């Protein structure tokens, strides 16, 4: 089985390599077997969901013509503002940013590097204010080849200096910055007491079943309850009680040493640790050396809860949500008050998960959510050919999750989430990325960004294409009814393939967009998604550059006659992906992370763009962009 312990997932740098390198991805063209396996899965599996012949899209903007050059572009009638970029000051008294001179300790007070997931948290807390709030942004990783002059991606781990390594640690993690809308333009509040960086050096608490477990203890923390830092923060979510969830997405390649000699070699193998030390941390920090601190690895790949409204609060790693390359942690309050959290494990042939709290959340008492995510049931998804999906509980003592099979207690089930999911026979997916829920229909949409490693023998009902270079979106249909009546705690759902991505004109691809999709409207490699208040789906892509296309943002209806009809709103500059789309409550601003501009360059001097500042001698800077209609009306209307 491709996802068995003997055949581990790739290290995270392999996933990143899919984003930054075109070398070999399309070598030799598409295999002749790249047709859909099982034609019955083309289009909808359910009656009443067929595409109409004529498009009546609810998206009213004139579609953008694809632009792939040094800068970004937006559809006619829209304007963009750079809200926050790498190195922007989050405190007063800092010198003007110089990308060639920034120090590690100074970076702790500046906006982080490769921005990803975005949460807009209104101010004051508890309001739905759409012109004042906190921008909470993940800073996933660094791109040494366009961050440091003369450095390549391959030699970074061996050649980065101590100062560069520490700068990288300080540039990753999470940024919180106060922003305000004035005269239609968003700007940061540099001296806000709420501004904050959360980095690889920030002390955090461990909670839930794995807290205090022997496998979580190190020489620096004999209690197994205190962790220094977070890294590879990719997806995320927002809780109804006003906190942000940031997801650690695979930390395997920031550790050095020999994982095969470690006492936890089986766990390290399943989580793809190979001692690569991609950013040089183990050369200067013993905690990232598996020969010296093997258990340190177990203290990452969790979901971290942050209270952005309290800059003195300590982030908490919620172990009840499982350990994996978390891509999403989307929170839904079920009709019975219990909380469901949807998550994807972003690696080849990995799984989709759902956590359901045992206790209900009380909206009248936000404090009731404080430790709600420590007590509940984590499940993994199995998709069946009859159009049903079953959530399989990862509970110690049930089925194969026993001491005899290597799971001593519930803490070990969660520490070995991937191994537990293997044992239950979950469905291996094409790199599960973001998972979001429609505020109108209650249906759940899960993004499979791509999987070039799947061959014909490994196709399954929910992943129908071998050598899937284009990705697809799966639609989950909870029972119980529409909207708030949907039961997100049910054991069984129905499911559909919403769209298979790729060029509709290439029959070998087998794309299933609406028949009226334009030459500029189809997309590949969906990554992050969100919904606007009207219930329209917005898709950010990551990987279009491999097809000599820009990554960008597309709006798409999920129901009605224009179901499955995308329209292009925004394109990124060269080498960048579009990630973390997020709306203000009133839908008038769409925030977007433009991540790793020019990263496909071998070295900084060969960068195709110096976006967004275009200053000679200065590196490109990942940034958050605000997209608004010039007339101030909701985006997409």
Main beta sheet, described?
9 strands, antiparallel
Coarse morphology: globular
The residue fraction in helices comes out at: under 10%
| Unreliable sequence segments | 1-10, 19-54
Based on secondary structure, the structural category is mainly beta
- Taking all Cα atoms into account, the compactness measure Rg is 23 Å
* Strand fraction: 25-35%
Mind sketching the topology for me?
Elements: H1 12-20, E1 73-74, E2 78-85, H2 104-107, E3 115-122, E4 132-139, H3 156-159, H4 162-171, E5 173-182, E6 185-188, E7 196-198, E8 203-207, E9 226-228, E10 233-238, E11 244-248, H5 265-270, E12 303-306, E13 316-318, E14 330-333, E15 338-344, E16 348-350, E17 352-360, E18 376-383, E19 388-393, H6 410-415, H7 417-424, E20 429-430, E21 432-437, E22 444-448, E23 472-477, E24 492-500, E25 526-531, E26 537-541, E27 552-556, E28 566-571, E29 577-583, E30 589-595, E31 623-629
Parallel strand pairs: 8-13
Antiparallel strand pairs: 1-28, 2-31, 3-4, 4-5, 5-6, 5-7, 8-9, 10-11, 11-12, 12-13, 14-15, 15-17, 16-20, 17-18, 18-19, 19-24, 21-22, 22-23, 23-24, 25-26, 26-27, 27-28, 29-30, 30-31
């Amino acid at each position: 089985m491709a996802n068995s312990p003997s055949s581990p997932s790739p290290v995270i740098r392999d996933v990143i390599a899919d984003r930054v390198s075109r070398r070999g991805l399309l070598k030799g063209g598409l295999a002749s077997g790249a047709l859909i396996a099982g034609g019955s899965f083309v289009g909808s599996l359910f009656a009443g969901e067929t595409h109409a012949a004529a498009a009546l899209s609810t998206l009213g903007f004139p579609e953008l013509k694809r632009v792939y050059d040094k800068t970004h572009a937006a559809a006619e009638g829209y304007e963009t503002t750079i809200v926050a970029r790498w190195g922007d000051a989050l405190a007063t008294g800092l010198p003007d940013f110089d990308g060639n001179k920034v120090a590690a300790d100074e970076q702790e007070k500046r906006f982080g590097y490769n921005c990803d997931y975005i949460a807009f948290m209104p101010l004051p807390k508890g309001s739905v204010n759409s012109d004042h709030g906190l921008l909470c942004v993940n800073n996933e990783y660094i791109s040494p080849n366009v961050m440091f002059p003369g450095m390549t991606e391959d030699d970074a781990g061996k050649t980065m200096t101590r100062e560069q390594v520490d700068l990288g640690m300080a540039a990753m993690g999470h940024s919180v910055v106060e922003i305000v809308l004035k005269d239609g333009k968003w700007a940061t509040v540099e001296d806000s007491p709420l501004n904050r960086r959360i980095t690889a050096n920030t002390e955090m608490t461990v909670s839930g079943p794995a807290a205090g477990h022997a496998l979580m203890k190190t020489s620096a923390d004999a209690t197994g309850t205190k962790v220094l830092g977070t890294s590879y923060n990719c997806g995320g979510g927002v809780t109804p009680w006003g906190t942000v969830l940031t997801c650690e997405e695979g930390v395997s390649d920031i550790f050095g040493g020999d994982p095969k000699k470690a006492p936890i070699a089986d766990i390290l193998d399943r989580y793809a640790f190979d001692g690569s030390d991609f950013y040089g941390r183990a050369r200067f920090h013993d905690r990232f050396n598996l020969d010296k601190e093997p258990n340190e690895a177990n203290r990452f790949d969790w979901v971290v809860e942050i209270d952005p409204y309290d800059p003195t609060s300590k982030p908490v790693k919620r172990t009840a949500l499982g350990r994996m390359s978390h891509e999403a942690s989307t929170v839904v309050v079920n009709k019975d008050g219990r909380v469901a959290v949807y998550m994807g494990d972003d690696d080849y042939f990995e799984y989709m998960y759902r956590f359901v709290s045992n206790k209900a959340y009380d909206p009248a008492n936000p404090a009731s959510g404080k430790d709600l995510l420590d007590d509940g049931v984590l499940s993994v998804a199995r998709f069946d050919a009859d159009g049903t999906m079953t959530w399989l509980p990862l509970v110690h003592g049930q089925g194969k999750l026993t001491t005899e099979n290597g799971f001593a207690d519930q803490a070990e089930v969660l520490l070995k989430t991937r191994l537990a999911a293997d044992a239950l026979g979950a469905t291996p997916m094409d790199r599960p990325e973001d998972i979001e829920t429609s505020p109108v229909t209650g249906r759940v949409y899960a993004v499979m960004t791509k999987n070039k490693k799947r061959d014909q023998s490994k196709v399954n009902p929910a992943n129908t294409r071998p050598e899937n270079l284009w990705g697809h979106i799966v639609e989950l249909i909870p029972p119980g009814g529409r909207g708030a009546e949907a039961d997100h705690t049910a054991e069984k759902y129905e499911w559909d393939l919403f769209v298979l991505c790729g060029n509709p004109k290439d029959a070998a691809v087998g794309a299933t967009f609406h028949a009226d999709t334009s030459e500029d409207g189809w997309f590949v490699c969906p990554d992050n998604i969100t919904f606007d208040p009207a219930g329209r789906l917005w898709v950010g892509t990551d990987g279009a550059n491999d097809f000599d296309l820009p990554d960008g943002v597309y709006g798409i209806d999920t129901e009605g006659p224009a179901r499955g009809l995308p329209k292009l709103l925004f394109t990124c500059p060269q080498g960048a992906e579009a990630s973390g789309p997020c709306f203000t409550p009133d839908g008038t601003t769409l925030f977007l992370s433009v991540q790793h501009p020019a990263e496909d360059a071998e070295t900084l001097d060969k960068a195709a763009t110096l976006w967004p500042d275009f200053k000679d001698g200065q590196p490109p800077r990942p940034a958050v962009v605000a997209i608004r209609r010039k007339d101030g009306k909701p985006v997409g209307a």
